[in-house]
Amino acid sequence: PYYYLSTCTKCEDGFSVVDGHCIECNEMCKTCFGTSETQCIECKNGFYLNSDNVCTECNENCFTCSENPTTCTSCHPHFYLSDGKCLECNNECEECEKSPSYCTKCPNDFFAYEGECYETCDKIGPDYGISLDLQCVKCEIDKCIQYDDACQCLKCSEGFYVVSDSITLIEICMPCRLQNCRECNGSGNDD
Phi and psi for 122 in degrees, rounded to 5? Predict the structure, then answer.
């Protein structure tokens, strides 16, 4: 019988092609061209590739860094990037950006909106609700005049009724189709 010997031409991250097989890279390498610590092409998060092609650990506040251990390119949660440094967010913020007090994510049971944390989104004003990523957003459904906390429409303007969109599962307002009708609870079509 004929057996075809397959050889690998590209490996998953953390491995290098050596003689047609995938061999594990040095533990600090994300990608490499061999198993030695000086054969890294790209480093895992928390390391940067120094001038000797060795992955060197970043400063403890950096999630990723480049050029040297203190030049951060991204930060761990509860820190924000400012001029290549990771600075800590205020305690009011779980995550922040631009400044220690500009919250992009809030602690449990609080919701972010324009850099601040709110216990409920209706404290911002009427027609504000909670998005899927736990941010406060302005509820904007055409012809809707009353919303719940998740921006689902509860009541439509006169001549419209609430229906759940079968694709998005979002409550939307549809026009009443009954002649001279001001309020309805369905399309009025006899399907």
Answer: -70, -10
